[in-house]
Design goal:
Layout: E1 13-14, E2 18-22, H1 28-34, H2 41-44, H3 51-63, E3 71-79, E4 84-96, E5 99-108, H4 117-130, E6 134-141, H5 146-154, E7 158-164, E8 167-173
Parallel strand pairs: 5-6
Antiparallel strand pairs: 1-2, 2-3, 3-4, 4-5, 6-8, 7-8
Helix pairs in contact: 1-3, 4-5
């Protein structure tokens, strides 16, 4: 940390239909079901984790980054009217070329896809990051993942000519 700023932290964020709740280990059991469809992993890779492994993973995430200059910010998406969890958003915030940079990602469980929840959550996240001194937002999206490209576009990100692990780097400068 450079001492000139407070770390970016995951705090509650509200949008029209969603509550973005800071990640807690206690969410792992419900999230194992949300993230349990193998089809969800077509573009994000990996495979569904059982609740026990997801609890361990969440335990590591909530502990935070070992690098004091980097903030790990993770949220679950709670649909207010349905009182259920439906996905996640995350931001890894650290020093970039032009100030703070946040690498963001989103995942919505298969039963809730196609309802605009990822876009709503990502827009709320980008808005919050912009109010926390983040200058650049990036996302890495598989070139065949049209739905995630649409979310990124809605958030004002544009594709660059850079690739990272087979994914296109999308970017937006804030403020």
């Amino acid at each position: 940390m450079d001492g000139l700023r407070e770390p970016v932290t995951a705090t509650d964020i509200s949008s029209q239909r969603l509550e973005l709740l800071p990640l807690q280990v206690k969410f792992a059991d419900e999230m194992a079901a949300v993230l349990g469809d193998p089809a969800l992993h077509t573009f994000i890779g990996g495979a569904p984790l059982p609740a026990r492994e997801l609890r361990e993973r969440y335990g590591r995430l909530v502990t935070g980054s070992p690098d004091p200059a980097v903030s790990w910010c993770n949220w679950v998406l709670r649909i207010r009217d349905e009182e259920c969890l439906a996905g996640t958003v995350q931001a890894t915030v650290g020093p970039g070329d032009d100030g703070l940079e946040a690498e963001i990602a989103w995942v919505v469980g298969v039963p809730w896809q196609g309802r605009g929840l990822a876009t709503e959550a990502a827009l709320a996240l980008v808005d919050r990051l912009g109010r926390q001194s983040v200058r650049t937002v990036v996302a890495h999206i598989h070139p065949d993942h049209a739905a995630s490209a649409a979310v990124a576009t809605a958030c004002g990100l544009t594709p660059t000519d850079r690739m990272h692990d087979g994914e296109v780097r999308w970017r937006r400068t804030l403020g």
